[in-house]
Specification:
By secondary structure, the chain is of the alpha/beta class. It has helices at 19-29, 57-62, 76-87, 100-103, 108-114, 139-145, 166-187, 200-206, 209-218, 252-261, 276-281, 283-294, 299-308, 319-323, 326-330, 372-378, 383-391, and strands at 10-13, 33-38, 51-52, 55-56, 66-70, 91-94, 119-124, 194-199, 236-240, 243-247, 313-315, 334-339, 343-348. Helix content is 38%, strand content 15%. It is elongated, with a radius of gyration of 25 Å.
């Protein structure tokens, strides 16, 4: 097997919590050598979520394929070790508030002096300039500020956050994409480093998709539509005898297939349902007609019949059902990873499939400081210098 795409790329990772570690996990899965720099108390996520034999499964999920070094970055010796790591790195990642890295003594001029070809990956709430630059931000605040939350929920219900931390994840995904693009640019001969920045608010707002497009076209703020599609009808959840069926006939071709299966082909002859515009204007009646038909069968029946007819549909699955879904299992999207001292830890697999250089679990999530000595020796540190760092908190 060929080397993984990012084999040989060294990333010094100062990030913690979720957005940054998710970004570096994506890079790690693609082969990058991630050196996770942690304070003596460790990444806070080591103490979050449920534990299996003393290990946070939350931490394990987002820190696989990484190495851990503990440095006290408030100390001169810790900062000196970080400087040496930066000298040999391709990428430095941080998710501090803007200005924090500068105050630590690693402003752009210092980074340029240490490593003029360094790619600096920054993840923050709002960006490195603008009126919100000094504000703290978390996923929930980004969901609120970005407009994302305003689009979720029903017309008569309050705005609703996503259960998954989509603001953190999208920012991390964009940062990984940007860093990979910058690495590719260097491989093509582009000289010098550059800064790659991704933000929680900007990332989420970019995902408003057709909702923002509708606003640009009409000047009207889209109403919350719950499980109904903002611009397509019929589309959403429909109640079968024993549960809900998600049906997504996005376009007249699919709608006509749905109507044929439901013995409703005559509906398109009615001016009130003849096209999508008319159906949107009469959505409540349209949905009621489809609901009545779906209500005559079971979820399994409609999943089989509608899929066979080429109508996109699916059951509403909880997480247990997803983990045991045969399709995800066939795609190796559910992994069980051995963590020495903790046993087998379940986690989600690799969503990107490369045919010739597939992602693998090379390393389980590291114990705090598990690789401190090895990494310091790679930097040329002798026993005396390693002991100095140990005496001020390195493990």
């Amino acid at each position: 097997m060929s080397q993984l795409p990012l084999t040989g790329v060294r990333v010094v990772d100062l990030t913690r919590i979720l957005a940054g570690p998710f970004c570096s996990a994506l890079l790690a899965d693609m082969g990058a050598d991630i050196i996770k720099v942690e304070p003596p108390e460790g990444d806070p996520i080591r103490g979050h979520g449920h534990f299996v034999n003393g290990l946070s499964t939350y931490f394990a999920q987002f820190n696989r394929n990484k190495r851990s070094i503990v440095l006290d970055l408030y100390s001169d010796a810790g900062k000196a070790a970080l400087a040496e790591l930066i000298r040999g790195a391709d990428v430095l990642m941080e998710n501090y508030r803007p200005g924090v890295l500068d105050r630590m003594g690693f402003d752009q001029a210092r980074l340029d002096d240490l490593n003029p070809d360094l790619i600096l990956g920054s993840i923050n709430g709002y960006g490195s300039d603008g009126p919100y630059v000094d504000r703290p931000a978390f996923d929930f605040i980004a969901q609120a500020m970005s407009g994302f939350m305003s689009t979720n929920g029903g017309a008569d219900t309050p705005p609703l956050r996503s259960g998954a931390p989509v603001g953190d994840l999208i920012a991390g995904l964009y940062a990984a994409f940007g860093i990979t693009c910058a690495v590719a640019g260097k491989s093509k001969g582009n000289s010098g480093g550059q800064r790659v920045e991704a933000t929680l608010m900007g990332g989420l707002s970019s995902m408003l998709a057709f909702l923002s497009a509708e606003y640009f076209a009409t000047g009207k703020v889209p109403a919350r539509t719950g499980n109904d599609h903002p611009v397509v009808c019929p589309y959403g959840l429909f109640r079968a005898v024993d549960g809900d069926v998600a049906i997504a006939p996005a376009g007249d071709v699919f709608v006509h297939r749905l109507f044929r299966i439901l013995d409703m082909s005559h509906v398109v002859e009615d001016p009130e349902f003849a096209d999508n515009t008319a159906r949107m204007e009469n959505r409540a009646r349209m949905n009621a007609m489809v609901d009545e038909k779906i209500g005559a069968g079971t979820v399994d029946h409609w999943i089989d019949v509608l899929n066979a007819a080429g109508v996109p549909c699916g059951r509403v699955q909880d997480i247990e059902q997803v983990i045991n879904d045969p399709q995800l299992r066939s795609q190796n999207m559910i992994l069980s990873v051995d963590h020495p001292g903790h046993g087998e830890i379940g986690m989600m697999g690799f969503p990107v499939k490369l045919s010739e250089t597939p992602c693998t679990i090379r390393l389980p999530a590291p114990e705090l400081g598990a690789d401190t000595e090895a990494i310091l020796r790679e930097l040329g540190y002798d026993d005396e210098k390693i002991d100095i760092l140990r005496n001020i908190g390195a493990k």
